[in-house]
Prior knowledge:
The structure holds two protein chains of two kinds. By secondary structure, chain A is mainly β.
Amino acid sequence: EADIYQTPRYLVIGTGKKITLECSQTMGHDKMYWYQQDPGMELHLIHYSYGVNSTEKGDLSSESTVSRIRTEHFPLTLESARPSHTSQYLCASSGTGLSYEQYFGPGTRLTVT
Amino acid sequence: AQSVTQPDIHITVSEGASLELRCNYSYGATPYLFWYVQSPGQGLQLLLKYFSGDTLVQGIKGFEAEFKRSQSSFNLRKPSVHWSDAAEYFCAVRGDSNYQLIWGAGTKLIIKP
């Protein structure tokens, strides 16, 4: 069982605020991912990383940014939150080599008022 | 390009009845296939995966899936569902590049008492 953590679990903030969603994993996985998911909908990849100092944008355009300074940590930042950013954000990681299965954190439910 | 289709947006099954959730994929080479489950407000949990070998794979929580290359399908089955199986189920296939997964839109499973 993979251990991957996300904080906060729930966040309600006002428009224009800067926020950082935290994601950490303890398995030493080299690959990490951020997905955006609206309730009852499919997952959309917004960022991924294959290792320290490596980040790429995913298929869904996002105004967020990410960093990967340490293997275990992959935070996502919104410089100025807007109501359109209201969604669930899921962090995932996968192991070294040719491992493709991804392990997910519990998610952060973000509401921007 | 790779794609995953889950034809049923939602399925309603009586408790104790059998279940089959459909998944069709498009992929040129031998696919790596996955089924995940998502309970409300939670992240995704890996149920089972297929890489090679026996086309009938067993997973957690009493689920199994059968890979049928001729039909490009990877359907999920359970002989007798429990109320706790009510959740969203996602099928995924390995993408061509960069250790990414291509996701289906999900099937919501509703259990009738």
